[in-house]
Write a structure and sequence with these properties.
The structure holds four protein chains of four kinds. Chain A is built from ten helices and six strands. Chain A has a six-stranded parallel β-sheet with strand order 3-2-1-4-5-6, sandwiched between helices. In chain A, 75% of the residues are buried. In chain A, helix 1 (3-24) runs antiparallel to helix 10, helix 3 (72-83) packs parallel to helix 5 (101-118) and helix 6 (137-150) runs parallel beside helix 7. Chain A has two domains: 36-214, 3-Layer(aba) Sandwich (Rossmann fold); 215-249. Helices cover 56% and strands 12% of the residues of chain A. By secondary structure, chain B is an all-alpha fold. The radius of gyration of chain B is 26 Å and the shape is extended. Chain B has a domain at 93-123. Chain C is an alpha/beta fold. Chain C has three domains: 1-27; 37-94 and 110-311, no CATH class; 359-541, Rossmann fold. Helices cover 49% and strands 8% of the residues of chain C. In chain C, helix 2 (39-45) crosses helix 9 (179-191), helix 3 (56-63) packs across helix 4 and helix 6 (134-148) runs antiparallel to helix 14 (294-311). The two termini of chain C are 49 Å apart. Helices cover 74% and strands 0% of the residues of chain D. Chain D has helices at 4-20, 28-64, 74-85, 92-129, 143-162, 182-229. The longest helix of chain D is centred in the C-terminal third of the chain and has 48 residues, at 182-229. The chains are: A alpha/beta, B mainly alpha, C alpha/beta, D mainly alpha. Chains B and D meet through helix 1, helix 2, helix 3, helix 4 and helix 6 of B and helix 1, helix 2, helix 3, helix 4 and helix 5 of D.
């Protein structure tokens, strides 16, 4: 059996399905996905923070180019405009932190662009801060721990790629009555955060995140494609196992 | 024009790189150039990132913001590491001790603090999560892993209990395989989205 | 009794200004006030007294359909933009100079610079902890529902609809005059009985015509705005009509006829953009028919939902906040450090009594022992400095087996501290032995270099003049699963023939096991407990044994915490947090 | 006499205490240590990138051996220039060209790795677990092999099902909004247990690693104090 060929077929099928659904969903149709309380709860924490006059921290991750859980840096950035709502524009009080220059620079560009196009040219985007607390995973944690102690933070969103040390950040915010949203990062980070925070997206669920903030054709096409591939994989595993057992494979 | 050019570059480079898995020998030299350029580019991006960090701290000092003193510390130690690194010969034992002498204690101590925080977190596992299949699996598995870790449970090879212990030891790998497969699926889709220009990390346009 | 919209103080019915905060109270006073105010404030004051306890942003929402007209902008703005530009107009004077300020370095907007609506929300959040989150959540819900449909057509529809409402204004006036002003003037027109017939008849139907402008019917003046009238209908706060049904129907026909007025773009405001609302009032023979745009309806729904929610009983959000959260941490920390120190500095090293290795450990040893005397091995140092001691404990016995005179050891890292850590570890292992070390240096991206190295073609140019195929094996020293898997995937995908082995921390072990089961990893040692076994089997150093007692104490403490945590778990506390699990 | 080890031992001792002081919350000492760490790490990373990547692979070849063999260098040089130009706000779009280059390349490497490095080998492992030839183990039992294979399949399938994105199509109650289609929902329940088991094991690993780091710090501090008190 030529497994390499199967791999190429799998990639081809994925590509065709993704292209097809992206095209089909342009007409306005979509793919209904599960409601996840975590994101709703996080939105609530944003609101509560604004009303209490507390700051909000968003960790965009340690690096932009991630390999396992690819595209987490990108995903974190795609969420940024969705976090920059009117209240944030007026209130400021939001910090976007990344451990990678690309993340910090992109985040700044997005914030400026959002204020320019989304809000008003007369409103300065400087109320939303973009910081680079450290350039290595643990220096990022150390820098952010100091940052989190400067002001009372009402919410912390752990987006992108980060390690188990993120638990220190989460606990710091929780201790001060803040709320935390955790998304994949690394599996070790998920395990470390699991006992502490309820709003944690585990494993693949992190790929649902941008669409949970605001759906787009691309996201919905990707979700449906991934679900179809998952079903194909499950069926393939069962059929293959049976064939192997009866000696056909 | 740029709206077409920029995504096309991603697609072109992506397809050539992907083809490298299929035609490694034919595309070998081309790929070395593409990857080599990518690595150099990443280094430049890394330097720009460091520049951003410095800019941030310099501005803190200029605007006399809160925490300016600490920005001064950052800049000071940045210069120490930079100058020493460029002046001292490669592989200098002093430079190694200078960097690791600070990095190891701080990083390890941070992990030490993490150990304590994990202890506190473990106290509130069920309070936070409640008794759900997820939390029950988590709790029992964590307890069992610690017990295995300490070598308190072991049996003679070939015995029934040895088989049972091996089975229990291997249980976490089953979930892990499922998670890994899911991640691979996700990775495939995200990769394709970037190639298809559905996601554009290189700009919001 | 008039409730002050600003501070909520109860004032006598005849008072024009609040006794407490001196805010304007009566409709007449408000209208007088309108004439003295700049545009955007005027639009706020057009709102009914009943709505004054809502943030100005909500007022903005209710006005947003009119806003595209502000400053006579030609391009279509989304509702969100409109809301933004409205509320932000309040901020113009308090915005710091963009040129003098440094992006990313500004503090939060100061209370004195904060818009009034936000100040009011915060004031309320302080006073009523149970209201936290409610007000703005509703506003956001309203915004989201409006932002969802960004079609510029809608705005054109809405503007043209407003044009038709303000009959007395020709289209060119609309372009010149900001719509809010138009609306204000329209209200003046109402004062001068120049209001549209349909509205007059509706008022008649409500039995309000000619009533005194007292506080009681100040709210009814909301009927000036079709939107607020709809809300009133939904809230059921309208008085039963006294007018006969024909009058109502006539008025509605007239309202329909206003759609054929010059300047009205029929295509942009067709049937699709409208819907029928059957208003069934007690005592009516037939329900009156009223046409409103979807835009109007959605705003009315949002507004009524918000108003209703403002008065609704809210669930109490209690913040989970320990009195002194660090106390428990400190106590546990002190206990842990004491216990560990006791374990470390008392008693002799504890050797492992497990003499049989696990298959994946055995696999690594077999590979290391089978290496030829002139073998070349690629050692990848991908771990952070904080994990150096654990990796040293795990790697030392294995490296002792691998690094022998005559063998070529190539070193590569993609972790910032990797090169220094490699230097440190190899100095401990090699000592004075004469070993051929080939330093391939640091490469910033593991995935790219792994892909490049795993190429079956040797390239004479960048980055490395070799390929993984040159080696008899690869040994990965890593602290995380993610860092290790990059190499494993690339090597097994491109040159599966080369044996890959891993020396990893305990946190990476369980996740790498499937790769060992699949044969992508030849052998693996992960964590101190496996290193402890390996040390016992190889019977050389006692580095792990020396730490074992302390380690065991620490693990016992964690087991105790998990058990105690599970026993004292209180489900009730979770409810207070009001957070849903993922 | 003060030795090199004593100096670095003292530095390590102080820095460790400063970081551990975070147990009582953020304080001046913690912040001081953290910022020393940030500055030093950034400085070292800069040295690493300049000295070990840019100079040997870009600058040196261009200076020492310009000409035909180095023609390929035009590509990285041009991309780096564009990246730098992209930092100028008005020319920021130019910066997107090198980033699109990196994005495309990384995406392709990820796709290849995910499919050929994980998906296929892991699926093969599940299949091979069902090979009757491999069921009989050293102790002569076949049933552990069979049970292991079945549990492996159930574990993988149920875990995959847990991550199903789509929601139940027929919505009868509000909770249905967060429910998967029936079959995935029921399999997902089982998957939760396997995921919990995996995360539990990883949690144990994370604690083990963190604990060992603390133990090693205590050893270093103990040795330093012993050296100090011993006068050596």
């Amino acid at each position: 059996m030529n497994w390499s060929l199967i791999g190429w077929i799998f990639i081809g099928v994925s590509a065709i399905l993704l292209a097809l659904f992206t095209f089909l969903f342009r007409s306005g149709k979509g793919y209904p996905i599960r409601k996840t309380e975590a994101v709703e709860a996080y939105k609530g924490s944003q609101v509560a923070s604004i009303e209490e006059g507390r700051a909000r921290q968003v960790l965009l991750g340690e690096s932009f180019w991630t390999y396992v859980y690819p595209g987490l840096g990108l995903q974190a950035l795609t969420i940024v405009p969705k976090l920059l709502d009117l209240e944030t524009a007026v209130d400021g009080g939001m910090s976007l932190s990344g451990g990678d220059g690309s993340l910090a620079v992109f985040a700044r560009q997005i914030v400026d662009g959002r204020y320019q196009d989304g809000f008003s040219t007369k409103l300065s985007p400087i109320g939303v801060r973009t910081t680079l607390p450290g350039v290595t995973p643990l220096s990022l944690t150390a820098g952010l721990l100091s940052e989190l102690s400067l002001r009372p933070y009402g919410s912390l969103a752990l987006l992108g790629h980060y390690g188990p040390a993120a638990l220190l950040l989460a606990e710091t915010v929780i201790d001060k009555g803040g709320r935390v949203l955790g998304t994949a990062g690394t599996l070790a980070a998920q395990a470390a955060l699991f006992p502490s925070i309820q709003n944690l997206l585990i494993g693949e669920m992190t790929y649902m995140l941008p669409g949970l903030f605001k759906k787009s054709t691309g996201h919905q096409a990707a979700w449906l494609t991934e679900d179809i591939l998952r079903v194909l994989l499950i069926l393939g595993l069962i059929v293959g196992a049976i064939l192997k057992m009866i000696g056909v494979l | 024009m740029k709206k077409v050019l920029i995504p096309m570059i991603a697609l072109l480079v992506g397809l050539v790189t992907l083809a490298g898995y299929f035609l490694p020998t034919q595309l070998g030299p081309t790929l070395t150039i593409i990857i080599g350029a990518g690595i150099l580019l990443m280094s430049a991006a890394g330097l720009i990132g460091i520049g951003y960090l410095l800019h941030m701290h310099i501005m803190k000092l200029v605007h006399k913001e809160r925490g300016g003193f600490f920005s001064l510390i950052v800049l000071l130690f940045f210069l120490v590491a930079l100058i020493a690194g460029l002046v001292l010969p490669p592989g200098s034992a002093f430079y190694r001790d200078l960097i690791l002498g600070v990095q190891i204690p701080i990083e390890a101590a941070l992990l030490g603090v993490l150990a304590v925080v994990l202890l506190v977190a473990s106290l509130k596992l069920i309070r936070t999560r409640g008794w759900t299949p997820l939390s029950i699996g988590f709790l029992s598995s964590a307890l069992l892993s610690f017990v295995f870790d300490l070598g308190l449970l072991h049996a003679e090879p070939g015995t029934l209990s040895a088989e049972l212990l091996d089975f229990l030891r291997g249980l976490p790998w089953l979930g892990a395989r499922g998670i890994i497969l899911g991640m691979a699926l996700g990775g495939l889709i995200v990769g394709l989205r970037v190639l298809f220009m559905i996601d554009r990390p290189y700009g919001e346009e | 009794m008039i409730i002050c919209p600003e501070c909520g103080t109860e004032n006598p019915p005849d008072s024009e200004r609040c006794l407490n905060c001196n805010a304007l109270l009566t409709e007449r006073a408000l209208e007088e006030h309108i004439e003295e105010q700049p545009d955007h404030e005027e639009s706020l004051d057009l709102l009914s007294q009943g709505d004054h306890d809502l943030p100005d942003l909500l007022h903005a929402l209710k006005q947003d359909g009119e806003l595209p007209g502000v400053e006579g902008e030609q391009e279509d703005l989304s509702s969100e933009d409109v809301v933004a530009s409205f509320s932000l107009s309040e901020l113009e004077e308090i915005q710091p100079d963009e040129e003098t300020e440094e992006p990313g370095e500004s503090p939060v907007v100061k209370p004195d610079q904060m818009p009034e609506w936000l100040q009011r929300i915060r004031q309320r959040a302080k006073e009523e902890t149970d209201s936290i989150g409610e007000i703005t959540q509703k506003i956001q819900a309203a915004q989201e529902s409006l932002v969802e449909d960004k079609s510029s057509q809608r705005h054109e529809d809405y503007s043209s609809f407003l044009e038709n409402l303000g009959e007395t204004f020709p289209t060119n006036d609309l372009e010149a005059v900001p719509i809010k002003e138009v609306v204000k003037d329209k209200d003046h027109a109402l004062e001068e009985d120049q209001e549209p017939d349909w509205l007059e008849r509706i008022r008649k139907a409500e039995g309000k015509l000619g009533e005194n402008e007292d506080a009681a019917n100040a709210g009814n003046r909301d009927g000036d705005s079709l939107l607020q009238w709809l809300v009133a209908l939904e809230d059921g706060t309208l008085k039963p009509p006294t007018a006969d049904v024909e009058q109502i129907e006539e008025s509605l026909q007239l309202e329909d006829s206003t759609q054929e007025l010059p300047g009205y773009d029929d295509s942009s405001f067709g049937q699709a953009a409208t819907q029928e609302i059957h208003v069934v009032e007690p005592g009516l023979q037939a329900p009156p028919l009223l046409e409103v745009s979807k835009e109007e309806q959605s705003q009315a729904d949002q507004l009524s939902a918000t108003i209703a929610d403002e008065t609704a009983v809210r669930p109490i959000h209690r913040r989970r906040r320990a009195k002194a959260p660090w106390v428990l941490r400190l106590i546990l920390g002190v206990i842990l450090i004491t216990v560990l120190s006791f374990g470390l500095f008392t008693g002799a090293p504890v050797k492992s009594n497990l003499t049989t290795l696990k298959p994946h450990q055995q696999g690594l040893l077999s590979w290391a022992e089978a290496l030829s005397p002139d073998a070349s091995v690629l050692v990848i140092f991908d771990y952070q400095a904080g994990f150096a001691d654990e990796i040293t404990l795990i790697a030392q016995p294995v490296l002792d087996l691998i690094i022998k005179p005559g063998r070529e050891i190539a070193i590569l890292t993609s972790s910032p501290s990797g090169m220094l850590l490699a230097d440190r570890l190899l100095n401990e292992v090699i000592g004075t032995e004469d070993i051929i070390l080939r330093d391939l240096g640091f490469v910033p991206s593991a995935s790219l270099i792994a892909y490049s190295l795993a190429s079956p073609v040797t390239s004479e140019i960048f980055p490395l003049e070799l390929e993984a195929g040159d080696f008899d094996g690869v040994l990965i020293l890593s602290d995380t699963f993610e860092d290790a898997v990059v190499w494993i995937e690339q090597f097994s995908a491109r040159i599966p023939s080369i044996p890959v082995n891993c020396l990893v921390t305990a946190q990476a072990g369980p996740l790498l096991a499937p790769y060992w089961e699949s044969g992508q990893i030849t052998g693996m040692v992960s964590g101190i407990s496996e290193a402890h076994q390996l040390e016992a089997v190889m019977g050389e150093s006692t580095l792990v044994a020396y730490r074992w007692r302390a380690y065991r104490f620490g693990i016992f403490m964690m087991i105790a915490m998990l058990v105690i945590g599970a026993t004292i778990a209180d489900e009730g506390k979770r409810e207070d947090e009001g957070w849903g699990g993922a | 006499m003060i030795t090199n080890e004593m100096i670095w031992g003292a530095v390590g001792f102080l820095l460790t205490i400063m970081i551990l002081s975070y147990l009582i919350g953020d304080n001046l000492f913690f912040r001081l240590a953290a910022h020393i760490f940030i500055g030093l790490t950034a400085g070292y990373l800069a040295v690493l990138l300049i000295r070990h990547v840019l100079i040997p692979y870009l600058v040196k070849p261009l200076i020492e051996n310009p000409g035909q063999s180095q023609l390929w260098m035009i590509l990285p040089v041009a991309l780096i220039l564009l990246l730098l130009l992209g930092q100028v706000p008005r020319l920021s779009w130019l910066g997107r060209i090198p980033l699109s280059y990196l994005a495309g390349m990384t995406a392709a490497v990820v796709i290849g790795g995910a499919v050929f490095g994980t998906l296929i080998p892991q699926v093969q492992t599940v299949f091979s677990a069902f090979d009757p030839a491999g069921w009989v183990n050293v102790s002569g039992y076949a049933w552990p092999g069979i049970i292991n294979a079945v549990v492996m399949l159930i574990g993988v399938v149920s875990t995959l099902s847990y991550f199903h994105f789509g929601r139940k199509l027929k919505l009868t109650r509000d909770e249905d909004q967060s429910k998967r289609p029936l079959i995935f929902e029921s399999l997902g329940k089982l998957g939760q247990i396997f995921i919990g088991i995996t995360l539990g094991a990883v949690f144990a690993g994370v604690f083990s690693t963190a604990l060992l780091a603390l133990i090693n710090r205590l050893i270093q501090m103990g040795q330093f104090l012993a050296g100090l008190l011993g006068g050596s």
